[in-house]
């Protein structure tokens, strides 16, 4: 199949009988008469013309690129959020550039700046993360999504994580459990801090065993196996996210501990797999899709009005009772 001829914006302008600046306005959504826009678009389509990011940057044009920084693609939580963000951005003619925590902060800054992102959404920031601050320092708008940082001057959106911890504790206490344990997430992450605070608030008069799972499957699996093989096995376990709860369920199988007969397990997130019949995880549901949509909307609003005060949105959560919790034997 023959390749289409390579052309420049100057050639596009000449064939469409317009100025080169008019071609730039059409490419970037500027004000152009309908007849002129139609004529330019016809020539652009004829040559399948796509301006390079480098060329756009040289003339100060918008790149239409938004960076999204996530922690771990293996967590089913993140694909749900990324897909929801992408839909909102696509409707506004923007595309998504994904960065994972495989890269170092310095490399992440360089990648995002090299791509010419107009803004960035962080889904897994912690208080010690240098990347959001460095991007802001370069004048790139930042939105914190799902994870928040106290005092950080940016738009932020999260679920009501304190209430999530309360709901998990309240459910287990109502069932009659008094030997409780909590599998905690990444130290310093707002989700771990807040969910832990809510859980402790309702269980303050009880001894609660806490073990660190780091929001990681393998780490959580090992931690729960050690917990269940010890002398003071709990009758109920709150896991601060669903991935850790999935690990806990498998660890219980490995240790021969019946769920929910001998151990009740509660997660937090309600990722799609948690509702599958063989999983049937009792969990606290976050509005994952809505959190992601709000994050994208906050960034779009910021791009439209850079001077407005930062907003902090907190969305409600709800307990979803399934088959992994029951009264203690």
From TrEMBL:
Record has Transcription as a keyword: yes
Stretches assigned to the HTH lacI-type domain: 7-60
UniProt entry tagged with the keyword Transcription regulation: yes
Single GO molecular function: transcription cis-regulatory region binding
Record InterPro entries: HTH_LacI, LacI/GalR-like_sensor, Lambda_DNA-bd_dom_sf, Peripla_BP_I
Alphabetical list of SMART domains matching this protein: HTH_LACI
This protein's name: LacI family transcriptional regulator
């Amino acid at each position: 199949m023959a390749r289409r001829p390579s052309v420049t914006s100057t050639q596009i302008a000449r064939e469409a009988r317009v100025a080169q600046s008019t071609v730039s306005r059409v490419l970037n959504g500027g004000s152009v008469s309908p007849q002129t826009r139609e004529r330019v678009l016809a020539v652009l389509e004829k040559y399948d013309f796509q301006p390079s990011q480098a060329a756009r940057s040289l003339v100060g044009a918008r790149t239409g690129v938004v960076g999204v920084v996530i922690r771990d693609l293996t967590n089913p939580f993140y694909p749900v959020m990324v897909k929801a963000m992408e839909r909102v951005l696509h409707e506004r003619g923007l595309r998504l550039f994904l960065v994972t925590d495989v890269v170092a902060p310095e490399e992440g800054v360089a990648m995002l700046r090299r791509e010419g992102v107009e803004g960035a959404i962080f889904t897994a920031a912690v208080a010690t993360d240098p990347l959001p601050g460095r991007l802001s320092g370069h004048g790139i708008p930042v939105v914190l999504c799902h994870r928040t940082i106290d005092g950080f001057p940016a738009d932020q959106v999260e679920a009501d994580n304190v209430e999530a911890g309360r709901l998990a504790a309240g459910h287990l206490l109502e069932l009659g459990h008094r030997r409780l344990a909590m599998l905690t997430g990444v130290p310093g992450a707002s989700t771990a801090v807040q969910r832990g605070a809510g859980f402790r608030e309702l269980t303050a008069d009880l001894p609660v065993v806490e073990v660190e799972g780091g929001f990681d499957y393998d780490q959580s699996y090992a931690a729960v196996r050690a917990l269940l093989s010890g002398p003071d096995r709990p009758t109920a376990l709150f896991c601060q996210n669903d991935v850790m709860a999935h690990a806990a369920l498998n660890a219980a199988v490995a240790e021969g501990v019946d769920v929910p007969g001998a151990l009740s397990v509660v997660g937090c997130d309600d990722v799609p797999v948690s509702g599958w019949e063989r999983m049937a995880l009792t969990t606290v549901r976050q509005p994952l899709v809505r959190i992601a949509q709000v994050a994208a909307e906050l960034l779009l609003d910021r791009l439209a009005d850079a001077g407005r005060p930062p907003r902090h949105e907190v969305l409600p959560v709800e307990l979803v009772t399934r088959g992994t919790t029951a009264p203690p034997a």
